[in-house]
Amino acid sequence: MIHQAHPIKVRQILFIGLLILLAYVIGKEMYFLLGSFLGAVTVYILLQKPMTRLTFNFGWRKWLAAIFLLFLSIIAIVLPCAWVVMIAAEKLSPVIKNPELIDSSLQTINIYLLNKFNLDILNASNIAKLNALVIPFIQKSLGGTISGLGNLFMMYVVLFFMLTGGSDIETWLHKNMPFNNQNIQRVMDEFRSLVFSNAVGIPIVAALQGLVALIGYWIFGVHEFVLMGLLTAACSVMPVVGSMAVYIPLALFLMASGNHVHGIGVALWGVLLIGSVDNIARFMLQKKIANVHPLITIFGVIIGMNMFGVLGIIFGPLLLSMFFLLVKVYADEYGRSDKILLDE
C-alpha cells in the first residue's frame, strides 16, 4: 500500500527547503561579516547588565546609554588590544622580514641539546616545518589592518542596534526558537556563561600570565622581555602546552648562550610562577568560567584560528561549545518526545 504524503507536510518540507536555500545564500554572501557579528554578540552579552541598569535604574535613553557603553568598550577593549598589536608588530617585523633570526636561535638551542642530552629535536627539517607554520600565522595575525578596521566598524554598528533593541531580540528568540521555555532559558544561560568564559576568562588569564612572565624575563635579563611577555600571554591560551611554548625554549636559549643562571631562573620562574597563575586565576573566576572540556578548547582554537585568525582563540571554542550545547538541547527536546511516542 502506497502512503501519500499529506499536502500540508509537502508544503512544510518545501517551505523548510526554501528557508535553508535562502539561509545558505545569505550566509555565503555575508560570511565576511561573521567575525563582526560574533564580536557584537560577545560584547553585547558583556554589556547587557550595564545597559539594563542605565536604562531602567537611572532612566537613560537607550541610544544614549548604548553610545556611552560603546565609548567605554573602545577605551577598555579596543585601545589596549590596538596597543598590544602595535607593540607586537613593531617587535616582530624584523623577524618576519628576516626569518633567519629564528633559525639561528633554534640552531643554538639544537646544538646545546645535542651536546648536553643527545637530542636532535630542532634539526634543519623540523625547523623548516616550524617556520612554515609560525611565519605565515604571524603574518596573517598582524596583517589585514584595513579589513580589521572595517570589521570593527561593522561590529560596533551591529552592537549599537543590539543594545538599543536587545529586549526585542530576546523576545523574538523566546517566541521562535524550536524549544520549550526551559530549554530556551538553558541555552541563553549557558551561552552567557560560555561568552564570559571565552571573552573574559581567557584574556584575563592570558594577561596575568603575560604580566608575570614579563616581570620574570626583565629580572633575568631577557633582551626583548616585552615581546617575550606578549608571546607568553598569546601562547597561554594554547591547550596542553600553554606558556611553556615560550619560557622553556627561552630558558634553553639562555643556557645555550652561556647564561646558565638566567636560563635556570627563567625555567624556575615559568614552572613555579607563570604556570601557577593559570590555576590561581581560574580558581578566582571559577564561578563565572564555564567548565569547557579541554578537547573542545583544542579543536575550537584550531577551527577558530583558521576562520578568524587571532580572534579565533575566543570565537572557535565558543562556536564549538554552542554546537554541542544545541545538540544536547535537541536530544533533550525531541529525544524524549520520540520515546513518549514509541511508548504509546
Description of the structure:
83% of the residues lie in helices and 0% in strands. It is an all-alpha fold and 344 residues long. The protein has a domain at 177-344. It is elongated, with a radius of gyration of 25 Å.
Task: Summarize this structure briefly.
The chain has about 350 residues and is mainly alpha-helical. Helices cover about 85% and strands about 0% of the residues. The two termini are about 25 Å apart.
Largest sheet: none
Radius of gyration: 25 Å
Order of helices and strands: HHHHHHHHHHHHH
What would you call the structural class? mainly alpha
Shape category = elongated
How far apart, in Å, are the first and last alpha carbons? 24 Å
Give helix % range.
over 70%
Regions with pLDDT < 50 over 5+ consecutive residues? Answer: 337-344
Number of helical segments?
13
Helix/strand layout:
Blueprint: H1 7-29, H2 34-57, H3 62-97, H4 100-117, H5 124-142, H6 145-164, H7 166-176, H8 181-219, H9 225-235, H10 244-256, H11 260-284, H12 294-308, H13 312-343
Kindly list the characteristics that best describe this protein.
mainly alpha; 344 residues
